[in-house]
Write a structure and sequence with these properties.
The chain is an alpha/beta fold and about 260 residues long. The chain contains eleven helices and nine strands. Helix 7 packs parallel to helix 11 and helix 9 runs parallel beside helix 10.
């Protein structure tokens, strides 16, 4: 066996023996679908755009047209992307786990994502915790009314709801709190899991990055899959440097026999 095969087999064994698995994903999960990451040096969004001008409540108050046009540009881009084998592998791991029974117990699988693109759901994942919200849902800032998949493009910029309030994407900007129910469940399932997988995230944005530390502190077996090393790499039990779309299908295939 190569070193990679040995690591993949070890991870598959840990998953098969686990009672609870938590997976936290970031932009790298969707990179092979063509969705840009944030912090990759050449291709990341923050290499071309200033996050403080686009992903903060202050930026939205100052210039709602620029902010909403930027999110609409990203909505259009995501609409043209399709789930990749990494999304499919995680969806299939969750389906495999859900088909367990008393005679054939299987672990629970909690999928937690920082991504707002909805690609895990489009791949068939039935339960995804969206820590940073969704770009497909917008909210009236006056009434709180939610709109799923509003028109693209909007008829006017900045867009307004029927009640006359500004519309904003239901994503979490810097300085904003994360959806409470999502964060509570993600924190609980990370702290209680036996196996924790971090995939395609630079692990610099909190509180999402803290989930790994909570899992490690509680004694979980920790795994990282990323093209590059991150601040979590030295602390995990196994780090695989590789593409999520190549590594995850191999792991999940070994677990599910698919
Ligand atoms: C591949 C790959 C392939 C590529 N295969 N891998 C504690 C310490 C320090 C700071 C803070 C702290 N607590 C809170 C803060 C402040 C702040 C924060 O974390 N700042 C740090 C950046 C310093 N956090 C917040 O403000 C959060 N709110 C909060 O904590 O509220 C309470 C509070 C309020 C006020 C004061 C204090 C506390 C909110 C954070 C919201 C983040 N929002 C964004 C935008 C969302 C909407 C949108 O999409 O536009 O979320 S920013 C952006 O970063 C986005 C992402 O979800 C998030 C994480 O990025 P991610 O997913 O990791 O992407 P990248 O690009 O960074 O990494 C991609 C990785 O993939 C790379 O490693 C590649 O190598 C890899 N990769 N291709 C495998 N094929």
């Amino acid at each position: 066996m190569t070193e990679l095969e040995t690591k993949i087999q070890r991870i598959a064994d840990e998953i098969a023996a686990a009672r609870r698995i938590a997976v936290v994903s970031g932009a790298g999960l969707s990179a092979e679908s063509g969705v840009p990451t944030f912090r990759d040096a050449q291709t990341g969004l923050w290499a071309r755009y200033d996050p403080m001008e686009l992903a903060t409540p202050e930026a939205f108050s100052r210039d709602p047209e620029t902010v909403t046009r930027w999110y609409d540009w990203r909505r259009g881009l995501i609409a043209q992307c399709t789930p990749n084998p990494a999304h499919a592998a995680l969806a299939s791991l969750q389906s495999w786990a859900a088909s367990g029974s008393a005679e054939r117990p299987r672990p629970s699988v909690t999928l937690i994502t920082q991504n707002v693109d909805g690609l895990l759901q489009r791949a068939g994942a039935h339960d995804v915790i969206e820590l940073h919200g969704s770009i497909h849902t917008w909210k009236c800032t006056k009434t709180g009314e939610l709109l799923d998949n509003p028109p693209l493009p909007f008829p006017e910029y900045p867009p307004r709801s029927k009640a006359g309030g500004r519309l904003r994407p239901c994503v979490v900007w810097f300085g904003e709190t994360l959806p409470e129910a999502a964060l509570t469940r993600a924190a609980r399932d990370s702290a209680e899991c036996d196996v924790f997988i971090s995939v395609g995230t630079s692990a610099v944005v909190y509180p999402a990055a803290g989930l790994f530390h909570a899992a490690a502190a509680a004694g979980a077996f920790t795994i990282e899959i990323n093209l590059e090393r991150t601040s979590a790499s030295d602390a995990v039990d196994i780090m695989i440097a590789g593409r999520a779309g190549e590594v995850l299908p191999q792991i999940v295939g070994r677990v599910t026999g698919g």
